[in-house]
Design brief:
- The chain has 209 residues and is α+β, with helices and mostly antiparallel strands.
- The protein folds into three domains: 66 residues, no CATH class; 69 residues, no CATH class; 30 residues, no CATH class.
- Helices cover 31% and strands 18% of the residues.
- Strands 1-2-3-4 form a four-stranded mixed beta sheet.
- Helix 7 links the parallel strand 2 and strand 3.
- The longest helix is centred in the middle third of the chain and has 14 residues.
Amino acid sequence: MSLLTPAENAAERALEEAMLARIDLSAIGTSWNPATCPAADLPFLAWGLAISHWDTDWTEAQKRAAIADAIPFHKRKGTRAAVAEVLARFHPLLTITEWWEANPPLPPHTFEVRASALEIPASFLTLETAEAIIRDVAAAKPLRAHFDFVQTLEAQAALYMAAGGLAGAMFRSDFAATLDTSRDWNAVLQTEIGEPVLTEDGLDYWETS
């Protein structure tokens, strides 16, 4: 016997049927906990928490750790620290060079992800790895920032007879991220170092007009 009114809707009927079936809903809390979620359901939990980086080859412990860090990582996204964290997952010697750190300076609001050919073996930097790095960095970087992924070859030679030094660098840019032209970034209020200023709710940026 139903206690619903004639104005019932499909959602109310489904809820009533679930309650009459005495379904144990306590498992929902278990499934949403990265420590207790069944291993087979971890990919679904990761999707539910909008994890932008996920590797099916990870161990179960790595998957649970990534899910546990999902919400804190979303809070760090859009910062240099978040990009550095992404790079560290791939290789500890991948570095970030922001536009004001380069010599000569890069265009404002750009940066480079650099892989030193002298320190990182060529066997590491496959096309698949490069694409994964670009994908994950693009998901973690500030929205208004554009970047290039470059492999660097740096050489130094000391000229002892002349008591001088010679240093040079050769860059090869193989990959580039798509520029974000979804809004006029010049109209966004920025800090002294070019970071956009978030509104109080953290969902948008303050504009100058």
